[in-house]
């Protein structure tokens, strides 16, 4: 989803020759294959948007897969870029890197100040390692490897799997199917009270390239050497139940939303402090309700792709 959005924006520019590979064409967990690709193509810059991602259920069910695949692919790409003498790299992380009890909104310097949320700890540890790897190559080799930490993302190209998706695409599919079948209710995990911040993927792509294109002096003036990441978000959150009600309205579901309080809530609040990004001159543009309507329209146009899943 994120890689696709960034690729679309880069494809619009006439100063970029875009080099991409599908998973079938290049296995990023294969170190030799990644290093061979980097050595052969010698890119001027690398944007690392690839990751194994999922919601609470997926993270809880496949913790070994999440930590192994993410550590392996990011190690291969970051080190492979260095060996190919790539000076500029952008690493995409996640807001789950911050401690479960971090002060809200979460600032960049709260990293490694407390215990992580257990439901996605393996994924978070992999992303923290990616940040520190970028910092380390900057310190030891003078590279310009930057990291952006997005809040919860949604939008066209998302994973709408009924069990392994994030909350917004999962709810879009469930509410859509409930509306189509005339179901009286849809079950929402947890109490509905945790607050979450949501960012449209097109805004994320725009922010990523904004940070990546910024001059080294301007970037370094905001982000110290030993804190090489920047939060990306809207700076606004809302209760999960309120977001679910928006999704229900967008999909035309008029039944009851039932809360299953036996299921985990996860972290009670995850709001990003985006003051650094604001100081750098960037702000999100897409309102949540508009973004949900656009994402649902994309789902409708591609729903045949999801029926077998």
What attributes does this structure have?
single chain; 309 residues; alpha/beta; 4-stranded parallel beta sheet; 3-stranded mixed beta sheet; 11 strands; globular
Write a structural description.
- The chain contains 11 helices and 11 strands.
- It is an alpha/beta fold and 309 residues long.
- The strands form 4 sheets. The chain has a 4-stranded parallel β-sheet with strand order 1-2-3-8, sandwiched between helices.
- Strand 2, helix 5 and strand 3 form a beta-alpha-beta unit.
- The chain is globular.
- The two termini are 17 Å apart.
- Arrangement of strands in the largest sheet: 1-2-3-8
- Helix count from the secondary structure assignment: 11
Distance between the termini: 17 Å
Beta fraction: 5-15%
**Number of DSSP strands?**
11
Mean pLDDT: 92
Short description:
This protein is α/β, with parallel strands linked by helices. It has eleven helices and eleven strands.
Sequence-ordered SSE layout with sheet pairings:
Layout (H helix, E strand, L loop, with lengths): L1 H10 L19 H11 L3 E4 L7 H6 L1 H21 L4 E5 L28 H21 L2 E7 L1 E3 L12 H15 L3 E5 L5 E2 L1 E3 H13 L2 H7 L6 E4 L5 E2 H12 L4 E5 L8 E2 L4 H6 L7 H15 L7
Parallel strand pairs: 1-2, 2-3, 3-8, 4-7, 5-10, 6-11
Antiparallel strand pairs: 6-9
């Amino acid at each position: 989803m994120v890689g696709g959005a960034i690729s679309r924006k880069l494809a619009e520019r006439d100063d970029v020759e875009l080099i991409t590979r599908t998973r079938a064409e290049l296995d990023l967990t294969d170190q030799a294959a990644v290093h061979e690709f980097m050595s052969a193509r010698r890119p001027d810059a690398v944007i690392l948007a690839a990751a194994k991602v999922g919601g609470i259920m997926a993270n809880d069910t496949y913790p070994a897969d999440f930590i192994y695949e993410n550590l392996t692919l990011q190690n291969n790409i970051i080190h492979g870029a260095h060996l190919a003498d790539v000076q500029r790299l952008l690493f995409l992380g996640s807001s789950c890197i911050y401690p479960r009890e971090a002060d809200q909104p979460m600032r960049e310097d709260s990293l490694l100040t407390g215990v992580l949320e257990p439901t996605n700890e393996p994924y978070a540890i992999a992303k923290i390692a990616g940040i520190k790897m970028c910092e380390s190559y900057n310190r030891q080799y003078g590279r310009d490897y930057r990291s952006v930490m997005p809040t919860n993302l949604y939008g066209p190209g998302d994973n709408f799997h009924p069990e392994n998706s994030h909350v917004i695409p999962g709810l879009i599919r469930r509410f859509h199917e409930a509306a189509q079948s005339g179901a009286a209710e849809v079950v929402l995990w947890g109490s509905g009270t945790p607050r979450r911040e949501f960012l449209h993927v097109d805004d994320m792509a725009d922010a990523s390239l904004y940070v990546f294109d910024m001059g080294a002096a301007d970037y370094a003036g905001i982000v110290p050497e030993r804190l090489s990441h920047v939060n990306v978000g809207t700076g606004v959150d809302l209760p999960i139940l309120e977001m679910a009600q928006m999704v229900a309205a967008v999909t035309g579901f008029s039944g009851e939303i039932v809360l299953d309080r036996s299921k985990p809530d996860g972290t009670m609040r995850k709001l990003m402090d985006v003051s650094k990004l604001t100081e750098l001159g960037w702000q999100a543009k897409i309102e949540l309700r508009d973004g949900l309507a656009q994402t649902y329209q994309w789902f409708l146009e591609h729903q045949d792709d999801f029926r077998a899943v």
